[in-house]
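Pipeline run #58 for the internal structure catalog. This entry was flagged by the ingest filter as a single-chain record with no existing model, so it goes straight to prediction. Upstream metadata was stripped on purpose; only the residue string is passed forward. Reviewer on rotation: M.T. Logging verbosity set to normal.
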Amino acid sequence: MAATLLCGCTKKETEPEELPGSIYGVITDKATGEPVQSAGVQLSPSGTKTVTGSEGQYEFTGLKAGAYSISVTKTGYTDLADYKITVAAGKTAKGDVQLEKLPPSLRVVNDSKQNIDMLDFGDAAGDVTRSFSIFNDGPISLEWQLTETSEWITGVSKAEGALSAGATQAVIITIDRDRLASGENTTTIHVTSNNGSKQLTVKATENRKLPVLITLDATDITASTAVFHGIATDVGVPAYTERGFVYSASSMPTVENTIAKLTVAAIVADSIEYTAIATGLDLERTYYVRAYAINKAGTAYSTNEVSFTTEMALPKVTTQDVTNKIIATGVATFNGTIENEGDPAYSERGFVYDAVRNPTVDDNIKKPVSGKGKGIFSSNLTGLVEGNIYYVRAYATNDKGTAYGEEVICDFNAKMPVVTTLAVSDIDVASARFNGRIESMGDLACIERGFVYGTMPIPTIEDGAKKTASGTGTGEFSANISELTTGVTYYVCAYATNSKGTAYGVPVSFKPESPYYAVLPSAGIMVQKQDIAEPVIVWESANTLCENSTVGGYTDWRLPTIDELTIIYGERNSIGGFKNNWYWSATYLGLYYGTAAYYYINFSNGSRDAPSYRTMNYARAVRSLP
């Protein structure tokens, strides 16, 4: 008998579902009770975050029953951490909290808002300004004041003010380095406010050092004057404000025992030379000179001195180019300049000249010129002979002797005109217009100008045809020429003649021919220089266009025969204007598919053929020579 297994099952009882709870609260300012919006609220242990609304409210929902804490942060307020709240199932826990505002905070900062406690002006002479900022690092506004008592701080851009939370105020400090003591200078600036104060140390260094000088040899020494030269190899610290020279009849002069102190404008630069002119010196007396310079460190002198003895000095003279040269009349103007009168001043000046080099007042032609003092002087010379070369020097004489300027040359060889042959214009079958230009007239008057032409490459007035042109002076001139032979190459030169001879321009060539057609004597025809029309599709149209042409006033134009077209192909480059294409002829070939056909030549290769009736070809009209 089978056994029966009985199983008894029981249903697990269902536990009741727990309802979620929530937290709701308002964040307010502890001092004013006003809601604090945009505060950050974080719930622990879940880490959930939210931000308060415009009324300071916040809320966390869907929470299990249990213990929680919140943290609140807001810029300008003390952080609230670990505020405990217990949430019951299905209930809302109240989480109102108050935040306490942070007090205002004064800071002294740089441009990067880093705290600083010193302004260092260093030792650079031009470094006289520094800046810093006063920063309100607190949540509410503050008022501040700045105090300084140093005599070398001469400027404070702003000494007091009010700053809202997070604002800055830039302050510029200016110092006067002339008021600094030598070495390191230190003072203090105090910034106070209704919430704290700061102290700022200000430092500036003044390194004083005497300039370093060198005295160079005196120059341009005369009976009563001399030029002194000095170099400042180091301008000192601070740079000198006065420089110059001291001199005396005894060695090692100073500003206390100098005959006269010669000051020079204090242009400051490294290793710069400066000069001064001493006047009123005694003749044949020895003087001692030293350069000096003054700065805040005192008076510096060159360690060396130079000496010189006054003596008479020659004048200084220069000779300029000869001007107003007219060879035909034998006149010219000599020119010179007295750069320095000498000491004593010159008693005579003028020019010496001759056909030999380096003329002097002793053995050559002399031309004195009245006047005195420095500057330009001139003399008009006459009787000069064409063909000579004269050597000219300006001179000036004083008690010491005679000084001469540089030698210049007065070339009295007459120059020829300078002529240019211009391109021939208005070329026709038997005429043309010659053109030329006189670039320079030369030294002698031009008595004739014009053109010489012929079939030789270099025509002259001796062997060519001559055509004179009216007019005088430089510039362009022209002449019309007729009775030329068509197709012949001519050469033409512009020319100009004076008493010394004839000058020619470079020859230019041309060929008389019509601008509209070319003449081919070998074929006995004229050929138009342009196609009669664009390609035409039928021979009859090309033929009609040629027969109706009136180019050059002729009415007997026609299509060329195939033989004439062959000659035209051979002369295509000289005629010009042809396309690399087919050209019609007037020579009949015969019927082509029942239609009359005519020969053509392919101008790309010279081949001869007969096109179909509908082929599109170019056409060039011709006429027979009489």
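catalog note: The first strand starts at residue 21 and ends at 29.
catalog note: The helical segments are 539-547, 562-570, 572-575.
status: ready for reviewer M.T.
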